[in-house]
Write a structure and sequence with these properties.
mainly alpha, three-stranded mixed sheet, 10 helices, 3 strands, disordered N terminus, sensory transduction, glycoprotein, transmembrane helix, G protein-coupled receptor activity
């Protein structure tokens, strides 16, 4: 039997910001401030929804879960990235890379399914308002969240298993700032077309199918809104969906660009820029989009702040 001279990769070296060596301290300060602001705004959203009974509705339940999911998602990637911006050696162990990939895929895939559930919630609220409390009861809401998490767990487990069962014997230099699928696959010594096809089909399942369900929901919603006689009524009804539509556009736009394009179009610098947007900027904008556009939430926030600052004995 021939002895293999190639050494198994035991750790990966991140090169995501290597071309910006002189700016890394500035990037650290900017990303840290954005991260702290994201944590703060998501914490405010979750605590306001929990404290104010007027927000104990399916829409705000999903929003609280979404905020919690985004907080966990940034926690998987951003703290390690901040440490690496100040470190000379930007490494992660083979096992640590696998855990990071599984975790962010689980949260990201669950996020996609959760947005589809939120689209269904808006569809029921507008198209079947008289049956809303029955169709979107607590058990149904919990079931939709559980299904989103189960789908995310299954996809992330299969994908990360396929990726990290490949042989890694050549380079360990990862042209990214976290363990994303395409940069890690690029380092594999060889991988079959079957594994690539399975990973691509899982991406389609996570991104295209939920997006189609959202489009079907909004086709019905727009049809119902157009039947409302007054323009004021149409505007008020559509405004309840506007925040969700903006978040859907941001999420599926960035994710589709990264995961649903041909491998020949892969560009490490382009991917790093897009990845910064959906790991740092999108979780920052989403809470602001939902809270700043929502009068009901802003009223609840004022009440919650009033109760905290001036408690009634």
């Amino acid at each position: 039997m021939e002895q293999v001279n190639e050494t198994m990769v035991r750790e990966f070296v991140f090169l995501g910001f290597s071309s910006l060596a002189r700016l890394q301290l500035l990037l650290f300060v900017i990303f840290l401030l954005l991260y702290l602001f994201t944590l703060g705004t998501n914490a405010i959203i979750i605590s306001t929804i929990v404290l104010d009974r007027a927000l104990h509705t399916p829409m705000y339940f999903f929003l609280a879960v979404l905020s919690c999911s985004e907080t966990c998602y940034t926690f998987v990637i951003v703290p390690k990235m901040l440490v690496d911006l100040l470190a000379q050696k930007k490494t992660i162990s083979f096992l640590g890379c696998a855990i990071q990939m599984f975790s962010f895929l689980f949260l990201g895939c669950s996020h996609s399914f959760l947005l589809a559930a939120m689209g269904y919630d808006r569809y029921v609220a507008i198209c079947s308002p008289l049956h809303y409390t029955v169709l979107m009861g607590p058990r149904v809401c919990l079931g939709l969240v559980a299904a989103a998490c189960a789908g995310g767990f299954t996809v992330s487990l299969v994908t990360s298993s396929l990726v990290f069962h490949l042989p890694f014997h050549s380079s360990n230099q990862l042209h990214h700032f976290f363990c994303d699928i395409s940069p890690v696959l690029k380092l594999a010594s060889h991988h079959s077309r079957l594994s690539q096809l399975v990973i691509f089909m899982l991406g389609v399942f996570v991104l295209v199918i939920p997006l189609l369900l959202i489009l079907v929901s909004y086709t019905r919603i727009i049809s119902a809104i157009l039947r409302i006689p007054s323009s004021v009524g149409r505007y008020k009804t559509f405004s309840t969906c506007a925040s969700h539509l903006i978040v859907v556009t941001l999420h599926y736009g960035c994710a589709s660009f990264i995961y649903l394009r041909p491998k020949s179009n892969y560009s490490s610098s382009q991917d790093t820029l897009i990845s910064v947007s959906y790991t740092i900027l999108t979780p920052l904008f989403n809470p602001m989009i939902y809270s700043l556009r929502n009068k009901e939430f802003k009223s609840a926030l004022r009440r919650a702040m009033g109760q905290t600052l001036y408690p009634v004995n």
